[in-house]
Specification:
- This protein has helices spanning 18-33, 52-64, 91-100, 111-123, 139-147, 158-165, 202-212, 225-238, 268-274, 278-286, 301-307, 322-335, 338-345, 359-369, 378-382, 395-402, 404-417, 424-440, 445-457, 465-483; strands spanning 5-8, 37-40, 104-107, 153-156, 170-175, 179-184, 192-194, 217-221, 244-248, 251-252, 318-319.
- By secondary structure, it is mostly helical.
- The chain has 4 domains: 5-86 and 251-319, HUPs (Rossmann fold); 91-248, Rossmann fold (3-Layer(aba) Sandwich); 336-386; 395-483, Arc Repressor Mutant, subunit A, CATH 1.10.10.350.
- Strands 3-4-7 form a 3-stranded antiparallel sheet. A two-stranded parallel ribbon has the order 1-2.
- It binds glutamic acid (GLU).
- Glutamic acid is lined by residues 9-11, 43, 206, 220, 224.
């Protein structure tokens, strides 16, 4: 059986998009499942929109997601180079082959002439297809145009290829995801495969690269379906086997429009910056089109690979539910060991002087604040009151502290706490007694603790009170409580 070889071929015109991450994942899973190879190719032919920063971002993001490639620009492989801009000397040979076999022709039309054709089609309310004006130029006519200084683009002759290999203008293929798809190729128009400046276009370069890299299956977004018809015709015209194609549905925002930055993060690196774990992100992304056979949605990439069948991918669009991703993220955060979690939280604690806390207190702080974390970045706010002398009093704490009862509770708390031994066990006991005494005076334990919490943390909700007092220590506790007195 032929070796399964799949690829992801991002254009570095931006940071790695979650949609591309999903395409990469499905290719990766398909390769794993079939003992095949997963290849990374950088499609940087559009030099103006390409930057090294984006290329690095693509590498880093795929690696962070665990989608390691077998062949690619950095690791090499038998069919390199794996960066399109380094392959420019490869493309002319096959252009010549297509010209020689009559499946391509030179087109000398100027942009103005093409614009005029388009304007006419628009005026007649017809879809635009190139007029094929240059298909039958004689050698003399071409020589004359060249003498005028015109440089030809090369166009692919659709009707010629279609007639040579098919019975009608209808081209059909069996999509791995969507089943049989077809199109009337008369509507495609003879597209440019090499620009007048000699640069290959996407549809042509991608075929040459996929052919030479022996790609067996092309799995990509459904926005490429119309390209697929063009690409199949090029393969046929070159007389080489056509790979199998599979097209994934689109990823839509919760409002069913195209997912964009106005909905939230879209680049993998932005999700990471916002405090998502890549394990959660890749698990979530897998569920955009794929469903586990046992209904258990929380799965590692290895578990997903074992259960993955490309034919079972949904052919419809998927909705990117940010809330579900958040839920998954909080689940994954809970699974981390304290040590792993601390490591990942570090970037979000940079604004604090961590030397204020002993290692033991730092561990305890994370232990008592980790439960409600949805994003790693939530930690920044969650631990604010552990640092510095004073606290910022929020509105609800202010209200609490303004109440007369709170003031009475605090005065009592200060006078008693001065004499407390500051250990977890003792604080636990003493606070219990303290609450009991105020309960006897008709004050609910909850209300008593609100006063202490508001004074020492500036908030009315937060982590375990005993833990907080122990970590911030006796001095800070008393100073803050005294400051909260009117
Ligand atoms: N560079 C193309 C893109 O980023 C690749 C499409 C393909 O997979 O053929 O959309």
């Amino acid at each position: 059986m032929e070796e399964v070889r799949v690829r992801i071929a991002p254009s570095p015109s931006g940071n790695l998009h979650v949609g591309t991450a999903r395409t990469a994942l499905f290719n990766y899973l398909f390769a794993k499942k079939n003992n095949g190879k997963f290849i990374l190719r950088i499609e940087d032919t559009d030099a103006e929109r390409t930057s090294q920063e984006y290329i690095d971002n693509i590498f880093d993001s795929l690696k962070a997601l665990g989608l390691n490639w077998d062949e690619g620009p950095d690791v090499g492989g038998p069919y390199g180079p794996y960066t399109q801009s380094e392959r420019f000397d490869i493309y002319p040979k096959y252009i010549q082959q297509l010209l020689d076999s009559g499946f391509a022709y030179e087109c000398f039309c100027t942009p103005e002439e093409l614009e005029a054709e388009k304007a006419e089609a628009t005026a007649n309310k017809k879809p635009y297809v190139y007029s094929k004006k240059c298909e039958h130029l004689t050698e003399e006519e071409k020589a004359k145009l060249r003498a005028e200084g015109r440089k030809p683009a090369i166009r692919f002759n659709i009707a010629k290829a279609q007639k040579a290999f098919h019975d009608s203008s209808i081209l059909e293929f069996d999509d791995l995801v969507k089943g049989k798809l077809h199109m009337d190729t008369d509507l495609l128009g003879d597209f440019v495969i090499q620009k007048s400046n000699g640069a290959p276009t996407y549809n042509y370069a991608v075929v040459i690269d996929d052919m030479l890299m022996k790609i067996s299956h092309v799995i990509r977004g459904e926005d490429h379906i119309s390209n697929t018809y063009k690409q199949i015709l090029i393969y046929e015209a070159l007389g080489v086997p056509v790979p199998r194609f599979g097209h994934l549905g689109m990823i839509l925002a919760p409002d069913r429009s195209k997912l964009s930055k106005r909905h939230g993060a879209t680049a993998v690196s932005d999700f990471v910056k916002e405090g998502y774990l890549t394990d959660a992100l890749i698990n979530f992304v897998a569920l955009l089109g794929w469903a586990p056979s046992d209904g258990q949605e929380i799965k590692s990439v290895d578990e997903i690979a074992a259960d993955f069948r490309i034919g079972e991918i949904s052919s419809s669009n998927s909705i990117f539910e940010y809330d579900k991703l958040k839920w998954m993220n909080s689940h994954y955060i809970k699974q981390l060991s304290l040590e792993e979690l601390e490591e990942r939280l570090k970037p979000y604690l940079e604004k604090y002087d961590l030397t204020e806390l002993s290692k033991e207190h730092f561990d305890k702080m994370i232990e008592i604040t980790r439960e409600p974390l949805t994003l790693l970045s939530d930690i920044t706010d969650a631990v604010e009151y552990f640092f510095g002398e004073d606290v910022n009093i929020d509105e609800s704490a202010r209200e609490t502290l303004d109440a007369e009862t709170s003031q009475d509770v605090l005065k009592d708390f200060i006078s008693k706490a001065e004499n407390w031994e500051w250990t977890e066990e003792n604080l636990h006991e003493k606070l219990e007694v303290f609450r009991g005494e105020w309960k006897e005076k008709g004050i609910k334990p909850k209300v008593t603790m609100w006063a202490v919490r508001a004074a020492t943390t500036g908030r009315t909700r937060g982590a375990d009170m005993v833990g907080i007092l122990e970590i911030i220590g006796k001095d800070k506790t008393l100073n803050r409580a005294k400051k909260a007195l009117k």
